[in-house]
Design brief:
8% strand, binds zinc ion, 4 helices, mainly alpha, single chain
Length: 98
């Protein structure tokens, strides 16, 4: 398979933004709590992308548990994740791309 995520032979495709899983969890909760939300793929992808863009990215390398800024620096309060997801959902509700 063609892996475009290569830097001088090292794969960087496993380096994830720390916010991804937190946001996915929060969006799933939002869908559970709001049966009116459109469940089409475009809306789900829009909500996810907008939520991620709302917060500063937190990429981290996969091989060690140590982080560049210490454990505290990577922790993001639940409230900020919540706010990002809520504003993304409002935006998609107002102007859906489907
Ligand atoms: Zn939709």
């Amino acid at each position: 398979m063609d892996n475009k995520y290569l830097i001088i032979g090292h794969s960087v495709e496993d380096i994830r933004n720390d916010n991804e899983l937190l946001i996915i969890k929060k969006i799933n909760e939002a869908f559970q709590n709001d049966p009116q939300l459109c469940r089409c793929r475009l809306c789900v992808e829009d909500i996810y992308a907008l939520s991620l863009n709302y917060l500063p990215a937190r990429y981290k390398q996969s091989l060690t548990l140590a982080t560049l800024h210490g454990e505290k620096g990577w922790q993001i309060e639940d409230a900020r994740i919540e706010e990002a997801v809520r504003s993304a959902i409002e935006q998609v509700k107002k102007r859906p791309h489907h």
